[in-house]
Amino acid sequence: MENCDILIIGAGIAGLSAAYELSNFANVIVLEAENQPGYHTTGRSAAIYTRNYGNQDIRTLTRASHGFFTSSAQGFSDHPLLSPRGALFIAREDQLKTLDTALADAQAKSAAIQRLNVAETIEINSALDPDYFSASLYEPDACDIDVHSLHNGYRAGLLGRNGQVAVNSQVHSISHQKGYWKLSSRAGDFSAPILINAAGAWGDVIAAMAGVRPVGLVPKRRTVFTFVPPPELNISHWPLTLDIDEQFYFKPDAGQVLASPADETPSPPCDAQPEELDIAVAVDRLQTATTLKVSRVANKWAGLRSFVADKTPVIGMDDEVEGFFWLVGQGGYGIQTAPAIAIAVAELINTGNLPEMLTTMGLQAKHLCPGRLR
Asked: What is the pLDDT of residue 189?
């Protein structure tokens, strides 16, 4: 039996970032069922940092994460975690009301965004068909996130503080005895007074194993594919381009075009695989909205983005079971909010309160706690 202060199930971005912050004051062990950290959703994310994505709580966590992304490279990553990309939200005539609502909402929160006409939009992304859409919103400050460097930085930082990451550690049983969580896994037995559930799509499964009531987590499949653009086309400067109702998106990715139908198909927890129908839908939407032609799909994959009913992450101690801490339900926002969420986890466990950087921005612990869902 290996003992520690805090056990974390799941070595995706949520589990490793929390472990990194917690290792400032605690002995932390992270258990990962797969043979490598970040195998599932984290490793399949086409992440972008945008302040105009998600509900108010998500946007607060995103804004609060910005300082870490822009200042953490020294001693954390050999490469900048953010690189300029921009985000372009296009709208057909029948979607203009949605576009104007999104613009007013962003401006009310002082986000950098502007409304463009068709000609101005085409100047930013020449692949768009001018007959398809009527206007757009452009967020120049949106950035690509180097997910690999971020994830590896958290892992290296944790190990540098004598934390541990145990791979191939699928959990077989969980029990709570005399104030300690005891876990039996493929890698051995572990014990700690605090257990953090950062198991992603398997969050409710882990809760059930621990005798904890679920929070209604729904994993949803998101499909992504890439294709090679015509050689004469310079795509490097294109922004992330999205339908304002999230019916599809595309962006440059390592010399290819990455695209998705932005699907949200409910799925059981699994090693998600792309469905040919979803790829066909994405290709049709892309070719309808742009002058691009997809002659051959180069790569394709899928991941699970997990949500609860209000699409706000579940972060906090369970209100019914001692020492069981929830860290699930990040949906499609887990990468861009990871720094702030990790700091929040550490502060909640250390002091019982959210950090001041979040409370001054209007976020309250009750917005995140699992009790709100019961």
From this structure: 97
- Structure letter (DSSP) for residue 229: P
The interaxial angle of helices 56-71 and 334-351, nearest 10 deg, is 90
CB atoms within 10 A of CB 111: 16
Say whether both 186 and 240 belong to one domain.
Answer: no
In angstroms, the Cα distances linking 251 to 74, 94, 287 are 28, 24, 14
Averaged in consecutive runs of 10 residues, what is the pLDDT profile of the chain (374 residues)? 97 97 98 90 82 91 95 76 96 98 85 93 97 97 94 95 96 97 96 98 98 98 96 93 96 95 96 96 98 96 96 97 98 95 98 97 97 94
Distance from chain centroid for Cα 246:
16
Are both 178 and 231 inside the same structural domain? no
Q: Which of 200, 254, 266, 185 is nearest to 15 (CA)?
A: 200
Domain co-membership, 314 together with 296: no
Do 252 and 291 sit in the same domain of this protein? yes
Q: Which of 307, 323, 346 is the last residue of a domain?
A: 307
Six-digit token string for 24: 């400032």
- What are the CA-CA distances from residue 127 to residues 47, 124, 130, 243 (Å)? 22, 9, 9, 14
Is 327 strand, coil or helix? strand
Kind of pairing, strands 240-243 and 2-3? unpaired
Tell me if 74 is assigned to some domain.
no
- Report yes or no on 314 lying in a domain: yes
Residue 370 near residue 310 (C-beta atoms within 8 A):
no
Q: Return the structure tokens found at 122.
A: 């085409």
- Whether the CA torsion 208, 303, 186, 30 is positive or negative: it is negative
Domain boundary residue, one of 291, 307, 323: 307
59 token code pair: 């946007």
Q: How far apart are CA 27 and CA 66, in angstroms?
A: 27
List the beta bridge partners of residue 183: 174, 190
